[in-house]
Write a structure and sequence with these properties.
The chain is α/β, with parallel strands linked by helices. The chain has a domain at 50-135 and 157-221: Rossmann fold, CATH 3.40.50. It has three helices and ten strands; from the N terminus they run H-H-E-H-E-E-E-E-E-E-E-E-E. Strands 1, 2, 3, 4, 7, 8, 9 and 10 form an eight-stranded mixed sheet that branches. Helix 2 (50-64) packs across helix 3 (89-102).
């Protein structure tokens, strides 16, 4: 008795094609999953650093803080900044206006509506920077071109070798004002100059650092002498 077995033929070429198709779509799926998981962060560099802004605003706050506006309380006052020369005047003027408002002074934007005009002036608003390095500073070196040649030569900047290094920044803000009556020009009060200060010190030692001290964030706060 002959028994016949039904044998299904296997096509190895089709199996290979199927494996390649599965592998291809697996790679595509992995790529799409990774692409969907990617994210980009936009990084910007503003014209002014946070340190600069904090130094100036803290010095402005310190200059305005001791001022008293008791004689102007309840009166309509127009703040005239025509004679306030520093380019960074917005820091001082903003602090001054806030102090006036919290002291009960009524600020007006039109001098014709004011009873008193306050002329604000300043001796200066700015930052002084000092650097101290114990070691070998970075030096730019490069081949010297022919005399009279305008072609630029590539320069090499040697690394800085510092045993200790310190960068100190001191900010100052000065504010004064005179207030007078609009109708008669009589002086009501005159104050200043009031000077505010702030600082930040950064220290490095044997390549470690910086350790930061000062009166602005983010630093270890220390009293200003």
């Amino acid at each position: 008795m002959n028994i016949r077995h039904n044998v299904i033929p296997r096509f190895h070429g089709s199996d290979t094609l199927t494996h390649k198709t599965v592998l291809f779509w697996g790679v595509v799926s992995l790529y799409l999953s990774l692409a969907n998981g990617c994210a980009s962060v936009r990084v910007t560099d503003p014209a002014r650093t946070a340190t600069e802004q904090f130094l100036l605003s803290e010095a402005a706050r310190a200059a305005v803080e001791p001022l008293s506006f008791q004689s102007l309380r309840g009166r309509k006052v127009f703040v005239d900044s025509t004679y306030f020369a520093p380019a960074e005047k917005e820091f001082v003027l903003a602090e001054l206006r806030a102090k006036l408002l919290t002291s009960g002074v009524q600020l007006v934007s039109d001098p014709n509506q004011a009873v008193i005009v306050m002329e604000v002036r300043s001796g200066g608003v700015g930052i002084d920077r000092y650097e101290n390095l114990l070691g070998i500073p970075a030096i730019a070196a490069g081949p010297a071109g022919p005399v009279g040649s305008s072609a630029s030569s590539a320069t090499v900047l040697t690394p800085e070798i510092a045993i200790s290094k310190a960068i100190k920044q001191f900010s100052f803000a000065s504010v004064s004002y005179v207030a007078y009556r609009v109708d008669s020009g009589e002086v009501v009060t005159s104050v200043g100059p009031s000077i505010g200060r702030a600082y930040r010190d950064d220290y490095w030692f044997l390549g470690m650092g910086p350790r930061t001290l000062g009166t602005i964030p983010p630093v270890d706060h220390q009293p200003l002498d």
